[in-house]
């Protein structure tokens, strides 16, 4: 699976993101297919099923939930990838992990773990889409990010 994935240009872009290894990148390519077929990153989020469903009836507004109409395998794979990013934050911190902790430590309404992870899935998919469309790899300065990570504690 990895040897087939290495022939696709998006494989290199996916592997450049901290938390996405060759196995995860190959699986993600298999589940998402050609990302260039989507016109916007929001369409990619809808394909995975992490877009928000808003329900309102009269004066009553209900809490937003994810749609879950998309590809369940891609959604669970992205959940694992975000978990990998959070677990290896000391080795390879990135902006997705910073966003996760920002959501978890909000002063008024801190988000629960799964809510914050789904928000990170959306952010990661948007970043992947942008990088693939622009043809850029992810570039992180690990030495600078490590000093910022220590100040977070």
UniProtKB/TrEMBL annotation:
Domain Transposase IS116/IS110/IS902 C-terminal: 13-89
GO biological process, one term: DNA transposition
Domain of life: Bacteria
Coiled coil: none
Single GO MF annotation: transposase activity
PANTHER family: PUTATIVE TRANSPOSASE FOR IS117-RELATED, TRANSPOSASE FOR INSERTION SEQUENCE ELEMENT IS1111A
Name assigned to this protein: Transposase, IS116/IS110/IS902 family
């Amino acid at each position: 699976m990895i040897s087939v994935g290495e022939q696709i240009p998006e494989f290199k872009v996916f592997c450049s993101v901290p938390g996405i290894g060759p196995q995860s990148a190959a699986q993600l390519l298999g589940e998402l297919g050609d990302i260039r077929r989507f016109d916007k990153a929001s369409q990619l989020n809808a394909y995975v099923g992490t877009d928000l469903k808003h329900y309102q009836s009269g004066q009553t507004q209900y809490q937003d939930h994810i749609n879950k109409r998309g590809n369940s395998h891609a959604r669970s794979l992205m959940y694992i990838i975000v978990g990998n990013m959070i677990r290896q934050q000391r080795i390879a911190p990135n902006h997705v992990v910073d966003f996760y902790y920002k959501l978890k430590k909000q002063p008024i309404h801190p988000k629960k773990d799964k809510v914050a992870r789904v928000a990170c899935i959306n952010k990661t998919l948007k970043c992947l889409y942008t990088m693939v469309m622009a043809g850029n790899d992810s570039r992180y300065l690990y030495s600078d990010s490590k000093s910022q990570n220590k100040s977070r504690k």
